[in-house]
Design a protein that fits this description.
3 helices
């Protein structure tokens, strides 16, 4: 059985910290992907009316978008925690 030295332990911990920081950076990068100056806020009332007139709801679209985002963040976190 191999025993980790204190230096080996410190190096392993630093590698783990680096991995988690990389995951956090990926999440941060994603959070900056849709700047307001490029993608301005829509008129929510108008969007609701347009969607409603076509048998869709803003709530369903919003739920889909949030699932997509949180699943993406979850995937990044899961990958980092499994390594």
């Amino acid at each position: 059985m191999t025993t980790m030295t204190e230096e080996d332990h410190k190096e392993a911990m630093q590698d783990h910290i680096d991995l988690l920081q990389e995951a956090l950076q990926r999440i941060l990068d994603w959070s900056n992907a849709y700047p307001i100056d490029v993608f301005p806020e829509p008129c929510w009332e108008r969007a609701h009316e347009v969607l409603k007139s076509h048998g869709m709801s803003l709530a369903a679209i919003s739920a889909h978008n949030m699932r997509h985002v949180i699943e993406g963040v979850g995937k990044i976190a899961k990958e980092a925690l499994q390594r």
